């Protein structure tokens, strides 16, 4: 009769494990899935930046509209319309159009008779793709009708495929994202 030593463990002849090939295949599948998740996550971050900037531009357009509604007076200057001027590149600002001594509020030289009230800039990863005529939209008090209504298209810079978002301002002054 053979005695078992204290240090002898269980017999391994009936226990099976994974082979080296099976481990490498499993590791490869995990790495491929991880790469796909990372790529998707990067795309989501870029879209979040774009849609955040879109929301900021819509907020600035609504702020200009609110100024026109309340007939904002800054530095004792009377304004008859407010708008947002876009450009160059990533800059945009709220403008107030000074009330003319006679004639219509919005004329061809509206940009020369306006004051910058607030200035903004897009995130460096976003730029303006297309702008409305004259690169500005104005809301004329008291009816808030939009002058130079149109579509503003924002685009992510140096991204393939191209990712864009749009903001539409109608002649009635409605602002919506597309």
Automatic annotation (TrEMBL):
Keyword annotations of the record: Membrane, Transmembrane, Transmembrane helix
Lineage top rank: taxon: Bacteria
InterPro entries referenced in this protein's UniProt entry, alphabetically: N_methyl_site, Pilin-like
Name the record gives this protein: Prepilin-type N-terminal cleavage/methylation domain-containing protein
TM regions (residue ranges): 20-40
One Pfam family per UniProt: N_methyl
Phylogenetic placement of the source organism: Bacteria, Candidatus Joergenseniibacteriota
Acetylation among keywords: no
């Amino acid at each position: 009769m053979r005695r078992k030593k204290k240090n002898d463990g269980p017999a391994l002849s009936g226990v099976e494990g994974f082979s080296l090939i099976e481990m490498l295949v499993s590791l490869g599948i995990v790495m491929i899935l991880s790469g796909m998740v990372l790529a998707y996550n990067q795309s989501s971050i870029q879209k979040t930046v774009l849609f955040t900037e879109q929301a900021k531009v819509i907020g600035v357009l609504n702020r200009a509209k609110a100024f026109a509604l309340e007939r904002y007076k800054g530095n004792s200057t009377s304004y008859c319309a407010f708008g947002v001027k876009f450009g160059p590149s990533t800059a945009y600002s709220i403008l107030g159009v000074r009330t003319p001594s006679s004639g219509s509020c919005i004329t061809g030289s509206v940009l020369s008779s306006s004051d910058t009230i607030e200035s903004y800039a897009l995130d460096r990863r976003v730029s303006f793709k297309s702008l409305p005529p004259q690169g500005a939209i104005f809301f004329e008090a008291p009816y808030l009708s939009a002058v130079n209504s149109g579509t503003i298209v924002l685009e992510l810079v140096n991204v393939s495929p191209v990712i864009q978002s749009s903001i539409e301002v109608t002649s009635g002054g409605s602002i919506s994202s597309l």
